[in-house]
Amino acid sequence: MVGVVTDQGRHSPLSPPEAADLVLDFVNTRPIDGREERLADAPAAARWLRAAGLAREGTLVTEADAAAARELRQALVTVLLAHAGEHAGGGPGDGGPGGGTALEEAEAHLRRSGALYPLSPVVTAHDVRLVPAQEGVPGAFGGLLAAVSELARGGIWARVKACRNPPCHLGFYDRTRNCSAAYCSPKRCGAQVAMRSYRSRRAADPADAARE
């Protein structure tokens, strides 16, 4: 069970806590770099939720639940792209409208999810945890939102990002001291973006290309 704790000194901000690992595992269920879609259907979603410790063996997962998981994932990916400084274009691979609209829609979806999958505070003398108020798949989705809440309370939610390289959008944890990372790998994705930008400038200015 994922909880939100008041003791925020347990983790260095440069080291990802378990809550970050859970959120990143979830957003990286997408078919990235040729990997399979791990929320493709009800059986696949059930396997992932059980492996993540969010659902018990035998928890009923429907096709509607799998679709809801993919929608929740997409909303989180859009927010993580915003953390990385991505403010243009629609969500990854959706071909939708760009700009702030995609982020606003994602945030609205997450607000609706918060109402659908509420959390309850568990108060002890040592800490306060937010735990899912429901069982089954709603409780599993609530566990993901509890992880997000823990990261926000710890002041490190902005460090959980998605790579700005459009073919990638891999979720990653920003370990830089100034929280400035925009790509999962500067040598790979950062270099790819720089090369595309260079080629675009050359195409836009043939005279400049000729001088080279």
UniProtKB/TrEMBL annotation:
InterPro entries per UniProt: ABATE (IPR010852), ABATE_dom_sf (IPR023286), Znf_CGNR (IPR021005)
Pfam families, sorted: ABATE, zf-CGNR
Zinc finger CGNR domain boundaries: 159-202
PANTHER family, alphabetized: BLL6575 PROTEIN (PTHR35525:SF3)
Protein name: Zinc finger CGNR domain-containing protein
Organism of derivation: Planomonospora sphaerica
